[in-house]
Specification:
- The complex is a heterotrimer of chains A (109), B (639) and C (169).
- With 109 residues, chain A is mostly helical.
- Chain A contains four helices and no strands.
- Chain A is elongated and about 50 Å long.
- Chain B has a two-stranded antiparallel ribbon with strand order 1-2.
- In chain B, a hairpin with a 2-residue loop joins strand 1 and strand 2.
- The chains are: A mainly alpha (109), B mainly alpha (639), C mainly alpha (169).
- Chain A: It comes from Mucilaginibacter myungsuensis.
Amino acid sequence: MEKFFNIVQSVPLNHYILLSCILFSIGVIGVLTRRNAIVIFMSVELMLNAVNLLLAVFSVFRNDPSGQVFVFFVMALAAAEVAVGLAIIVMVYRNTSSIDINVLNKLKW
Amino acid sequence: MDKYIWLIPVLPLIGFVINGLGRNLLPKAVIGLIGTLLVFAAFGISIATFSQIHETGKAINVTLFQWINAGAMKIPFAFLVDQLSAIMLLIITGVGTLIHLYSAGYMSHDEGFGKFFAYLNLFVFFMLLLVMGSNYVIMFIGWEGVGLCSYLLIGFWYTNPDYADAAKKAFIMNRIGDLGFLLAIFVMVNVFGSASYNVIFAKVKMLEPGFWVITVITLLLFVGATGKSAQIPLFTWLPDAMAGPTPVSALIHAATMVTAGIYMIARSNALFSFAPVTMDIIAYIGLATALFAALIALTQTDIKKVLAYSTVSQLGYMFLGLGVGAFTGGFFHVITHAFFKALLFLGAGSVIHAMSGDQDMRNMGGLWKKVPITAWTMLIGTIAIAGIPPFSGFFSKDEILAHTYEHSKWMYGVGVLTAMLTSFYMFRLVFLTFFGKFRGTHEQEHHLHESPASMTIPLIVLAILSMVGGLIGVPHVLGGHHELAHFLKPVFDNPSLHNKVEELPASTEFMLMGLSVGVAVLALIYAWVKYVKNKHVPVRDGEERSLLATLSYNKFYVDELYDFLIRKPLDTASNFLYLVVDKMGIDGIVNAFGSAPLESSKGLRLLQSGNVGFYIFIMVIGVIAVLAYSLGLTDILHK
Amino acid sequence: MSIFYFIAFLSILFAVLVITAKNPVHSVLYLILTFFTITIHYILLNAQFLAIVNFIVYMGAIMVLFLFVLMLLNLNVESEPVKSNIVKFAGVIGGCCLLATLFGTLKLAATSSPVVLQDQGLGLVKNLGKVLFKEFLLPFEISSILLLSAMVGAVLLAKRERQPDGKVF
């Protein structure tokens, strides 16, 4: 076990941050390019996870458990968000028979 | 007397207030009585003032109150009545009273009777203010005031658009001159630190003659005089001003207001004698105006137009007199002209009254028997204006001509020619109107009648004055003493203005008189032959005329020339300013400020598509920008 | 060491597949895989509690919820209208710009020291529990209220409304 963890030790912090950034950007691209509301929602989840990963890494890097506690809170928040968000999507689908976000252009009024 | 001098202008002002407020309430008889009596009362005070000045020989100077106190500039509201203004007072109130009396008869059928008398009284007030002021600013008040009254009275029958246009024309032309006067006042206040006559004239005497500032001031003053006294190039308003009721033409446009320019120059003789250049210009312009207007008057058929051009011509004479240094002569002509021109205008009014408003001489003729008093008095006026002794016009005109002869021979020649023309067109008027057979309609012939007493009495009084008025200035060579010259001596007490004519040999002077009388009589005979013996009548409109007659009849197309030279370019410029600068430039900028947010919001509105995907995209861009800024991308750029 | 890069590669690969898959159901499955790789990252960091929570809550609960909704709405077919290429291109460009910006700032920070796990027990339940119930007690309690209200909200939103004409929508 000891040896297993030592694998990590030689990974520079930069690379973790890089990974997080890439995942986050992929999430952003997903949000921008897709029209399906649920897929967009999933992209948001992806972004959240990228941030979570980074928080955990920093927590380890600085030897501070607060970072991991934060991840815990983010997860709780994500759960709440998904519950409400999906409920909204269901409502939208009932009213418009579609979850294409381009149909939801009533915001200008 | 000094205490009551302020009453002279205030009395007509009271008349204006009463008549103005009560114009619809008071009966016509009361209005006429108030208007006439108040001016007559002013005349009474004027006589008393005049006799006091005549006895003591001292000017009356009364300061009523300090009016403008601005730093170093102090302009009191003060009256100065000296020999010059005392005579003007007599003319204004005297002739004014007669014309008020005449108006009571002439305007008796007019609806605006009260209004007319109110305006007339107001005019007298301003005219008195003009001549009584002790500084140029008060003169300017009166100057503007008479201009206003002139405008109001020319356009008295404003429902006729032509008359209203004539009023506007007079007003605008006067404004051009007024601007010159105003600028002259500014320069004088700036240079001399005061607008008072006494201060300015005292300071001028310390300057070199011909000093350029004096020339500028006098030229500007003369511009003002050309406007008010209808000289070239601003004379075209006066003939059009005949649109007003005839008493107005007599009072304002013959006897008083138009002589304001001469009064102003005579008053400023101390300035003008120091500006020989201006004096020459005045003489030339006066001479040109005299000849030009006389040429136009030759062919006019409207009885009032003939008199109007005659007035312009006589005013030109007066300016000629001033220009050649004959201040007394010029002013003498103002006095005599006031008598005979007022008489002629009132006579013309009486004729028009008899003709039921027709003013065309081609429709008249043979009126001698029908309106004998008018005919006799007008004949007297005509003899006076023609310069045939011993009537008044002869003396004043002869004095001017004698000075002109002294000054320049060729100018004298033109002057004599003008005198001949004057004699011709005036007798042409008389012969066409009163001799021969009646040429109007039967209806008019049936209606012909002599005017009421209120109109004939002023005619008779003025006729007597026209006959004997010249006696105040009989030259020495004819055995007189030239009372007027002695009386005015304190005013024109100026070394450069000494009377050179008195140095002329008596034989020369007799020859000059003989010449001018000779040409006048010659013209009279020619007019007699042409219009009485050969019964010539001016052709109707549309018939053939000779080239010169066409030019003259159409006033040498001066109005058209002004229209082409001044109005058209101004119109073009105004249109350019209106359409390009104002509409496109200023309005364009203002509208652009309005439409820019509108148009840009039309574009920006499209951003609010309601498309969530698009919003997110914009948000990401914003996030990128914020990140780039806050995470130190600027530092990278700095590095 | 290489295991980290392998797992990182898988994370990125699956993440890309998530956003490129045509079928939403496939997207969900790929997302589950992505989360799984992230769980492995947590394990590598010895963040055991997070790994387990991620596994249970994210992969177990949340993703199942996604699948449920997809199936409920019967969206498993490729019903999504295709976005125009220009929008896709713009989206990719935007994402790449963001990435570039982040890279730029990362370069600026330039901390390439390795991540060293100083305390073996940092990410254990025991340790985190202490922190959570001592320092973060109030936020913890508040988050419970958040979850409750989210639950109430979700139920309220998703409940079938009775239409005025009596028809159940």
